[in-house]
Amino acid sequence: MIKKLYALFILLFILGGLRAQYLHFGMQMHAGIWTSADAGYFSGGKAWQLDYVFGQKKLKYHAGVKQRAIQWGNELNLRTSLEYQLWEKNSQKAGFAVATHNGAALFKQKSLYTIGFESMYVHRIRLKPRFGITAGAGIRWSTCPAYKDYSSISSVLEILLKVGIFFQSQ
Prior knowledge:
Layout: H1 2-14, E1 22-35, E2 39-55, E3 59-70, E4 73-89, E5 92-105, E6 112-128, E7 131-143, E8 155-168
Antiparallel strand pairs: 1-2, 1-8, 2-3, 3-4, 4-5, 5-6, 6-7, 7-8
C-alpha cells in the first residue's frame, strides 16, 4: 500500500503545468460529539494530512493522504476532496469543501477498513507569491464497520478545526 501511495504522489507531480496546482500540509483537531455507543464530548485526536491540489479558478480537486489516531487505533487514509471557491479578495480566498476518506485502521490484530466523509469551510491567505496559510472548520463522520467485533464504538461524528500551509508551484 505504501508503494502505491508513493507512486500516486510521483504521478501527481509529473502532471505539472496544471493551473493553480499546489501542495497543502495541514494539521487537524477532532472534537467528538457522538459515537455509535453514546452522545457526548470526547477527544477525537489529532491528524496530519498532505494533499496535492489542482483545478481551475473556482473549483479545486484534492488528492492526498491523512493519518490520525482515533478510537479504533491509528488510521491511514487516502483522501479525495472537491473545493468550491465562495469568494476572493486581494490575497484571501474562502471556500467550501467536501471530502471522502478511504483507508485502514492499523489495528493490532489486523488492519480494518475505514471510511469517512467531511464538509468544511476553508479560508486561505496568501502571504507570498508561492506560500500561504489555511484555516478551516467543519464536521466529519467516520466509521470502521469491522470494529464492532471489538468495541461498541464503530462510528463517530466530530467537529473539525484545521490549520495548514500551502506551497504553490506557479
